[in-house]
Write a structure and sequence with these properties.
This protein folds into two domains: about 70 residues, Jelly Rolls; about 140 residues, Sandwich (Jelly Rolls). About 5% of the residues lie in helices and about 55% in strands. Strands 6, 7, 8, 9, 11 and 17 form a six-stranded antiparallel beta sheet that branches. A hairpin with a 7-residue loop joins strand 12 and strand 13. The longest helix has 7 residues. The protein is globular, with a radius of gyration of 17 Å. The two termini are about 35 Å apart.
């Protein structure tokens, strides 16, 4: 069957082909692709037999068949000098110029519409209600060996999916590289296991955390902004 909506994303480029599928049933995606379930309900992936792809998770499919409400599809070519190409594409330097800053390049960001989320289920926090969120997506790049910066503030629910290279999502007890307490390895097609914030009256609360690039890396950031 065909997708109800198949849309090429604004940050799709030779660095990473990127599109979204909306409301698809038994839709065949040719070739090898990373598939991300961006919705708050199960998607289904497979070939002869399908299995559930939980909300906010991802996998790699080869000539696979998918069903779901909102799916991201990404494929990557082996391209040298990714940083040079990202800069030529107009990706912005998050920290600005300067040798004392890590290289962290951000693609344009695109709004993908509204997503309804049961926060108690998504954040594993009983007592939270259901809410509508605007989903925004963009890609990031950092070269090998980059510590992207320890922080603990986001006004949204965020997840990351590795597109190329090997990276890490790291958590700390303090804003200090020596205070590491969790080190999640992210290979292409992997998403950090669950959204790891909680919601407080003042907003979303995160532990100190950072993304770290072991190799040259491209990764996807999904931001869910409460409406």
């Amino acid at each position: 069957m065909q997708a109800s909506t198949q849309e090429l994303l604004s940050f799709s480029s030779p660095l990473a082909y990127a599109e979204i599928l909306r409301s698809v049933t038994d839709y065949v995606i040719p070739g090898r692709n990373i598939v991300v379930n961006m919705s708050a309900s199960d998607a289904w992936v497979g070939a002869q037999q399908s299995s559930a792809l939980p909300p906010f998770s991802s996998t790699i499919l080869v000539d696979g068949r998918v069903s779901g409400h909102l799916l991201g599809v990404f494929s990557v070519q082996d391209i040298p000098e990714q940083e040079h190409l990202a800069r030529n594409l107009g990706w912005t330097d998050f920290y600005g110029p300067g040798e004392d800053h890590p290289v962290l390049l951000k693609s344009v960001q695109q709004s993908l519409g509204a997503v309804e989320i049961d926060k108690a289920q998504a954040l594993h926090s009983p007592g939270l209600g259901v809410g509508d969120f605007e989903l925004k997506a963009n890609l990031w790049f950092s070269p090998a060996g980059t510590d992207c910066g320890i922080h603990n503030e986001h006004p949204f629910i965020e997840i990351h999916t590795q597109i190329s290279g090997i990276g890490r999502m790291q958590k700390f007890t303090a804003k200090d590289q020596t205070a590491l307490y969790e080190d999640q390895i992210l290979a292409p097609g992997a998403t950090n296991p669950v959204p790891f914030c909680t919601q407080q009256p003042a907003g979303f609360l995160y532990p100190w955390h950072q993304y770290k690039a072991d190799t040259d890396c491209i990764w996807l950031a999904l931001e869910y902004h409460q409406i």
